[in-house]
Amino acid sequence: MVEGMIWMVFIFYLVYTLVPTFLIRRLGYGVFKSRTESPCAALTFDDGPDPQYTPQLLDLLARKGTRATFFVLGAKAEHYPDLIRRMHEEGHLVGLHNYMHHSNALMTPWKVRRTLEHSADVIERITGIRPVHYRPPWGVFNVFDFLLIRKFRIVLWSMAAFDWRSRGGTDKIKRKLIGKSERRRRHSPARQRRHTGREPRRAGLYDRGTRGCAGGCPPAGHLFCAY
Ligand SMILES: [Zn+2]
Known about the structure:
- The protein is an alpha/beta fold.
- The protein has a single domain, classed as Glycoside hydrolase/deacetylase (TIM Barrel), CATH 3.20.20.370.
- The strands form 2 sheets. Strands 1, 2, 3, 6, 7 and 8 form a 6-stranded parallel beta sheet that branches. Strands 4-5 form a two-stranded parallel ribbon.
- The site of zinc ion (ZN) has 5 residues, from loops.
């Protein structure tokens, strides 16, 4: 009896979230890929805006003349509308990370949809532009997210810095991203060509504690670009 229930829960989650997440994350089904002719890296920052770190990050990006994409939480956007306005006015792209940092695997489809639309409303009220780029927390999806593809552009990442758990500061993050970039270049020439030829790499960073990274981060010898 108990064993049967465990199997039912496992099969439910297999169909509800594991298979869709695999299809989207590994096979790229429905993932938005920007096209560009120049080799470049698109910097993306998740989880903000943060009153302590986001202004520092925006200052740094302004000094470097670099544009980035911020996947923000609707709840934080409500608290810090000036930071969202500043992102927009300084030429950065504001995308959605949903309203709270909750996994789509643990939410009903209608709750994902409702909170996503509410977050888009919040940002549209601040910037005047309705965001369409969307990256769910942890890159976890559920099967009903395939229905969102018609309305939102799902954006993932090519490299993650794991900077939220990095001890060792900026140098360690920089080494990690440049190292990953070099390994990809050496071991996957075909993939590398795809990335340098048409599609920008997306370096995933976090808008909390990434002090001083954007200017020196990935990958050496590449330009930075926005979507
Ligand atoms: Zn996140």
